[in-house]
Every structure is written in C-alpha cells, then in structure tokens.
Design goal:
Largest sheet: 10 strands, mixed
Strand content: 15-25%
Radius of gyration: 29 Å
Length: 395
C-alpha cells in the first residue's frame, strides 16, 4: 500500500525533520513500530504454544533433515553438496548453530569431517601425531600464543554461507511465525513509505542523503495513544537521545488524559498532585502491568498531574463529561499513566485494559483511548538547541 492509500484516521503527520531527528504526530490505534499483524487481542489469556507449532530447535532439526540433496546442480559452490550431506549425518543436529557466524565457525572447526575433500584442509604433520599427549599439548599451546588462528579460506566461507542460506530457507516456514505488519500499519513503516528510513529507498537517486538515513527508535507510544513521537536518524543522535531519556530531568513530556471521575479534584477540590505507585509486569495477564510493592518486585513509578480542563457543563455541572488531566510522567514504566489514572480515579476514557469507562465500539467510528502525548521538549542531539514539539488533540 502506498502512503496515499492509508486510511486518513491512521495517517501520521510530520512535525519536524532534519538530518538527526524526525518528529511526527501519531494517530491513535497505530503502532509506533512494526510488529505482528496477527498478535492476539485477548490479553487476559496466558499464551501457550500451539501443539502443531515447532520450537526453533525442532524446526531447525527438521529443516536439516529435509535438505534436498538431489538439487545439487543449483548450488553455486562446488563444496555445498558434500557439506550438506555430512551435516545431515551429524549425530546431534541440535548442536549445529542457528546463526550465520557461529555456523560458519562450526563448519571451519569441523571441516575435516564435513568437507574431507576440501583442498584447504591442513593435516597435522606426521611427527606431531606420534608425540606424547602432554608434550603435544604444551607445543600446541606455545604455538597458539605465537601464531594467529588460521583464517577461513574464501571458498570454505562461501560454502558455509550458501549451506546456511539453504537451511534457513527451509527453517523459517517451519517456525509458523506470525505475519509481520505491513509498512502502513506502523508509524515507523509509514515513514519508510515516505522515504525517510531503513534504506528502503537507497536506490532512489532523486532522494537526498538525509532521506536515506536509517531510523532509530528512541521511545514509543502505546498503539492506542496518540501524539508526539520522535525517531533518531543516525546512531550518534540515537545514543545521545536514549541517554537523555534515561536522565529524567532532561526530556520533558506532557500528556492529556480524559477521565470521567477524579476523586482528588471531584471530592477534595485539589487541582494538582503527585502519584507514586510502584509498578511491575503482571504475573497472570499478558502485556498488562500492575501496582506492586517495591519489596515484591515493583519499580518506582511517579506521575505528576494537574487539572487541564473541567469538562462538566450545564448549570451546577449537571452534564457530567469528566475531567481532562495534564500528566507529567517522571518515570516511564509501561502503561504507567493508564494504571495510575485507573488506581486513583475511573481510569482513562476508552481504556479497555485498565479503565472502567471504555468507549463502546462503533464500526464507523474506531474506539479512541483518550490519552494524548501533547508536548515533548528536549535538546537537539547535535546543536544542543532547546526544542519543543506539540500535537493538538482530536477529542
């Protein structure tokens, strides 16, 4: 899908772009980064591996056993067929590495068994074979200190690369992996469609160099959360920005959240305050977090809040529309704002995970979580200039 065909309510808006950063306004119900299109929506169920799905090791072993040796005419390297034949006969197939570099080293270490006819295999001198084991070991240790590990001959490396590629092509389908999202289904993917990242357009010579720089994820917004989202466009900027995110007083973030009931304001007439409730990943429900004491694994979590707007209207506020809060997260735990709002009040409107006021689903009007990243302030990673980016809320 081209960027022109993306549904309007899911289209990102570019707020700022230079050679180091790109800032966008992300709509609600759009992933920040690519993921899996068929991720489960029922988060209350503890996921189990389907009985017909193989583990990575099981799929790897089955892939090796299913190597089509009769297709050897298509091999680019003359040693590949012999290499694959001897890999198949390995006693413990699970010991064969599943990543390219370890696989190549495995082939090199076992080259005499896997490729006995390879012309680059150097046999040990006959004299060394007849030496006593202890003397031979001392001699080998001294030799190892004086000489470097022999390098892999190019033809052997080429054979290892091709063999690994063949096994991997057989391995991936057996994993039964979830379908990855398309570019239009995430903010980072849409930037790719627009020519901003991941070298998607590196062969398009009409683009400037800055438009071909790889995107680096600095922070994320929940899929349901809208607002300001920033990506770095080179490793140096990503490193500086990630460090800034860890230093809590360097980056300032402001969110707006709509709640139907907020006892500190509704009952106590307080207009600002601080929430300090430690959080940890739920032990029973996938992707959810929960309040948990520090001595039970909870992590310190702090949110400052103040009333942004009293949405109740009518005489004596008889029409109850709730309150819009301005939230300043001091820490950045997963779902921190959503949980803190749910613990203190009714939760954020539209929050089906934690709130008690979820918006009813309407096929013509997608559900909106009323949590919006309104403002982001930080120093530019290259110039050090203080920057502030804002995105207007749509509710």
């Amino acid at each position: 899908m081209s960027s022109n065909n993306i549904p309007q309510h899911l289209q990102i808006r570019i707020i700022h772009a230079d050679d180091d950063i790109i800032v966008i306004d992300k709509p609600a119900n759009l992933r920040s980064v690519p993921g899996h299109a068929d991720s489960p929506t029922d988060t209350t169920i503890k996921l189990k591996r389907p009985s017909d799905r193989l583990t990575a090791v099981e799929a790897w072993i089955q892939a090796i056993k299913s190597i089509p040796l009769d297709d050897s005419d298509s091999y680019k390297n003359e040693y590949v067929k012999e290499l694959l034949q001897n890999i198949i006969t390995t006693n413990n197939l699970s010991s064969i590495p599943r990543k390219l570099e370890p696989f190549a080293r495995y082939v090199f270490r076992n080259r005499k068994r896997l490729l006995p006819s390879h012309i680059h295999i150097d046999d040990e001198p006959e004299s060394s074979k007849n030496e006593p084991p202890q003397k031979k070991q001392r001699k080998d240790d001294n030799l190892a200190q004086k000489t470097k590990q022999p390098s892999m001959p190019p033809s052997l490396r080429s054979a290892a690369d091709e063999a690994f590629s063949i096994i991997q092509r057989l391995h991936i389908p057996l994993m039964n992996l979830p379908t990855p999202t398309e570019d239009w289904e995430s903010a980072q993917g849409q930037l790719r469609l627009l020519g901003y990242g991941d070298f998607a357009n590196e062969n398009n010579h009409s683009l400037s160099t800055s438009e071909k720089i790889k995107l680096h994820v600095v922070h994320r917004l929940d899929c349901q959360t809208s607002g300001v989202l920033l990506f770095a466009r080179n490793p140096e900027s990503a490193s500086k920005l990630c460090k800034a995110w860890r230093e809590r007083d360097v980056v300032q973030k402001v969110y707006l959240a709509h709640v139907m009931r907020w006892p500190p304001y509704d009952d106590q007439k307080l207009e600002e305050g601080t929430i300090e409730l430690p959080l940890a990943a739920s032990r029973t429900e996938r992707i959810k977090w929960e309040v948990r004491e520090l001595d039970d694994g909870g992590k310190p979590s702090i949110t400052k809040w103040k009333v942004y707007k009293d949405a109740d209207s009518g005489e004596d506020n008889t029409t109850k529309e709730g309150t819009v809060l301005e939230l300043h997260p001091i820490t950045g735990r997963t779902h921190q704002l959503r949980i803190h709002c749910a613990e203190i009040g009714s939760g954020i409107v539209g929050d089906s995970l934690y709130g008690d006021s979820p918006v009813p689903w309407d096929a013509g009007k997608p559900t909106i979580l009323r949590l919006h990243a309104q403002m982001l302030s930080l120093r530019h990673p290259r110039s050090g200039e203080e920057l502030t980016f804002k995105a207007p809320r749509l509710w």
